[in-house]
Amino acid sequence: MADAYVFLALVDTLIPGDELFPPASAVGTQHWLLDKLRQQDNGEGIDRLLRVLGDDFAQNTAGERASLVSRLEQDEPLLFATVRQLVYFGYYQSPLVVRAVRQLGIVYNDAPQPEGYDLGVFDPNINLPIQPRGHFVPTDEVKRVDLSALNLNLKVNHDDEA
Amino acid sequence: MTTKHDPVDVLVIGSGMGGAATTKILAEAGLKVVCLEQGRWVQQLGHPHASPDWDYQRLTNWHTAPTVRKLPEDYPVDTTDETPLMWNGVGGSTVHYTATWPRFRPSDFRKGREHGYAPDWPLTYEELEPYYEINDRDCGTSGWVGDPAMPLRKGFSTPTLAPGPYAPLVAKGFDRLGWHWWPMDMAVISQDYDGRKACNHCGNCQSGCNRGSMADVSVTHWPKAIAAGAELRINSRVEQIEVDARGRATGATYIDLVTGVRNFQAADVVIVACNGIGTPRLLLVSENARFPHGLANSNGHVGKHLMHHGLAIVEMWVEQITDTHKGVVSAALICSEFAETDPRRGFINGVTLHVVRMNGAGYQAFGSHSGNTAPWGSEHHTWFRRHFGHGVAILIVGEDLPLEGNCVTLSDTLRDSSGLPAPKVAYRLHPNDRKIVDFGIERVKDLGATLGAFDLKVNDFSIPGKGYAPPAWHLLGTCRMGDDRETSVVNHWHQTWDVPNLYIIDGSVLPTSAAVNPTSTIGALAVRAATHLRDTFASARTATRTMG
To answer: Looking at this predicted complex, what is its ipTM?
Structure first.
């Protein structure tokens, strides 16, 4: 049970709410995060997260929680990246968050299909260049270019780091 | 115990663009054709487009890389140099590509003459042009005739896709810079066509297309090929192409991945169409006493000259609404201003700039294509409000040189679920090609300044301590075609020099990569090769020598 509070506080530290967007916990992001982490590495990431954040994470002040998450970001960058990815994707797939995005004036569907989006129609009178430009070299006009200023060697050393 | 099937005229291995186009043409001519595909059909409802977690699924079970996805039919790829894109299923990688459909330029076929650091193709643009047209009709295209940066072409199946507010905004930037731009040729239909629904701009092309608007050959080609009598055997993983004492291919041994039963399919002609990594892998795995270094590899060229393109993505954010979560992911426009070689730039070959889109809110908050990730904490929503719906993404596609050291071999350590050696891939960007990518990045920064971008982020696909490690979307060049049997693997009709009834019809045969996406060219080559094979089949089925 204590773990549940830790994860609730963690997702809200990553994505708090504001006057429009709900906090991550309000849309259940903590459950998505836990579920996905359990599917990875036998849940080993959960143990590492709890070790860094501590059992009392949820009882800390907002500033203390942010400091602990910063430490997680620094000490466990790969784990933190995984957590952040899961939290961001989990959060923005929520219907409540999609609704908030729409309130920004952006047409945004719950999912791409079945509605898709209306982008109008292509109008060649306004969607093509007024003065088209561009060129190509026809086959029979391909000629040797002057390579004297280039120092080209086709060898590439696979032992070198680029 | 091996189950032997009745011999057929043609055995095709692989069901992607090359295999599908080839099978369709040969089956429609009345030949008995069997195609072996190690993966499955993706039913339309298998796509994630209507699921709330569609954005996340695109990066997991719909990931473009088998090394991440790890489905049962996928095979491992032994490399830290790249993350290759491929789909192992009916339709091959057309199931989840972007259907970006530009053609190669006439000069792309003449790099030997132009600079000599890559070979000429054994054919010209003009020879391939009629087959581009046929393949375009079969796939269904959208676009607009009249691009002055390309030879005049015939019409498209449907008009250019709707641009939304995005394309006109970026076009103004190109205009201010005095650069070429044109609507991108796409194999996505803007109107209903050939029994398929028009695109409704849902923005999730990279998980395939559940409407059938995108030219996925499991939708465009396979139903017609099967109706013409072709047999498509799924879950069939080929482990060996067999040859007889005369050095002719006799067929292939394959494993049914569901039952585990080993099968043998005999054929008069065998066609390999397994992509630029899978094809050389299969040829190398098929070594035998007569061909100890792998099939069709007497000159040692199988697997060499791997090309992927030099890639980078630059994203920027502007005050205007761009709505880049809507519309086909790639691409709204192409800028071909720098596509031809100009040595004054400090490199040979060229680069094109593609105006692409950015997927959903979760993906954009997590950094989209460039890694510009929204901050966590109290500033998160402020960042999101400022960025979402305001992005501009430019994909830089540079031609990469065909280098002998960039190659596919067999892994000593990794094997697939059937015990076959995994392909091992080595790939480095040549300094010339690095210059191309860097040049492209600088030009996109110019565009960003012109558009008044308030934020800009570059992803040059470099990993600290490692260097360039691209998402290898295009798998090209590893069994290249040519007129010289000492320096190429197949002749100009895709017939291997060493095994006269063995053909390769996929991206492996491309001698150069050009500076654009290759699938329209792979398809045109397949139509050309299959048409010739159809018309000469009586002699091809008994050929004992490959002619130059």
So the answer is: 0.94
